[in-house]
Write a structure and sequence with these properties.
By secondary structure, this protein is an alpha/beta fold. 32% of the residues lie in helices and 29% in strands. A hairpin with a 2-residue loop joins strand 9 and strand 10.
Amino acid sequence: MSAEQPRLELSGVAVRLGSRAVLAGVNLSVAPGEVVGLLGRNGAGKTTLLRVACGALAPDAGRVLLEGRALASTSRRERARSVALVPQDTQVPFPFSVAEVVLMGRTPHLGWLGFEGAHDLDVARAAMERMGIGALANRSVLTLSGGERQLAIVARALAQQPRLLLLDEPTAFLDLRHRLEVLTVVRELAAAGASALVVSHDLGVAARFCDRLVLLGDGRILASGPPREVLTPDLLRAAFGIEVELGFATDGVPVVVPRALAP
């Protein structure tokens, strides 16, 4: 893969659910080492876009390329070796231990017998420690809080060792410290060459941790660029129907304070 080739590329992607156009002509790319934030109000099409990006949903039109290759031409196993998805909320209906859930991330890398080796156990253990849940390894996921369960799901994605992370509001159930920890890990992975597409409703956190922001509205991209170019009063009014006050932290990162509903 050349340095110029996107890790993920969506071109002219359209998705209809019934009579509703959920995505309409979306063009989006994520480069190696880049963290892209996907913003928009509820129902804008963000989760649908992630489902298309990981191959869980086939678009009605357009193409999706993973490292220059048509995603539709890859097997599920090949995709799982490259792409990890962290959904909004994952319910685990059986009393698996945290260690067992995290170890599931190694499934795409196992041999034909399907048995985990010492390396797989080491990778899963390191992922739990990285997310600060090593002490929960033997706990049933059914006994965890929502935030602890989300950390376990993020650790499972890390154990998968993907080149592309797709995260759908990964910090929604987390306290402030764990939000920063999760996104710091995402930045570390990007520094090592991985890529990430992150859905977030926290505009301030997205501005600080993402290289680029993509603003989605009614299934179309309203804006794409550095946080300072996307987080403007006019664009946020168009995307969210709100009035905001915009400031900047001492390091120049935009700070958005919602003020009122737009008239």
